[in-house]
Amino acid sequence: MGRTKNKLTGDEMKKLQIQMNGRSDEFQTPKEAILVLLPYLKKNWVILENAWGKGHLAKHLQEEGFKVVSEGDFDIIITNPPYSKKEEWLENCYKQNKPFALLMPLTALEGKKRGELYRKYGISLIIPNKRFNFETPSGKGSGAWFQTAWFCWKLNLPNQLNFVELNRK
């Protein structure tokens, strides 16, 4: 599949841009979180990462050879959105009509509005067998107190629920 062009409007970017002020939404993505996603990504895809934070997720993807942008033309959205705004991000991602992978807590399956979105558009999950060590505002983190998964759409995953093994260190 070749790259298709799509530009976000200013309003859409404002809705999707993260606004972090030391809140609990600051969970910087560890490299191990993208390892489970890599087999489903096409190397020629331009990735939109628009919840940049400290740039860890973008850096990890770039290290794997991907072109990552924070705005403009893209083929797929891959991000770790602010969890307090997960519903808004999910809705906006569906509106883009492009593949996406959002790293969110498993509790993002809950909720009336999100349930309506999942029923309308569909969703597949990549669920690792362990919790990730996110960097938080207080410094390097330990295992999160919540389980996360990649909430994916249009990635042609083999199953709706994809359980993956990560080696514990």
Topology (SSEs and partners):
Blueprint: H1 10-16, H2 31-35, E1 46-48, H3 56-63, E2 67-69, E3 76-79, H4 86-96, E4 100-105, H5 112-121, E5 124-128, E6 148-153, E7 161-164
Parallel strand pairs: 1-2, 1-3, 3-4, 5-7
Antiparallel strand pairs: 4-6, 5-6
Describe the structure.
With 169 residues, the chain is of the alpha/beta class. It has a single domain (10-164), classed as Rossmann fold (3-Layer(aba) Sandwich), CATH 3.40.50. The protein has 5 helices and 7 strands; from the N terminus they run ααβαββαβαβββ. It has helices at 10-16, 31-35, 56-63, 86-96, 112-121; strands at 46-48, 67-69, 76-79, 100-105, 124-128, 148-153, 161-164. The chain has a 7-stranded mixed sheet with strand order 2-1-3-4-6-5-7, with helices on both faces.
Protein traits:
alpha/beta; disordered N terminus; about 170 residues; about 25% helix; Rossmann fold; globular; single chain; 7-stranded mixed beta sheet
Give a quick precis of the structure.
By secondary structure, the chain is α/β, with parallel strands linked by helices. The protein has helices at 10-16, 31-35, 56-63, 86-96, 112-121, and strands spanning 46-48, 67-69, 76-79, 100-105, 124-128, 148-153, 161-164. It has a single domain (10-164), classed as Rossmann fold (3-Layer(aba) Sandwich).
Spatial shape: globular
Instruction: Count all strands and give the number.
Output: 7
- Secondary-structure element string: HHEHEEHEHEEE
Structural class: alpha/beta
CATH architecture identity: 3-Layer(aba) Sandwich
Ends distance:
37 Å
Measured on Cα atoms, how large is the radius of gyration? 15 Å
- Classify the beta-strand content into a percent band: 15-25%
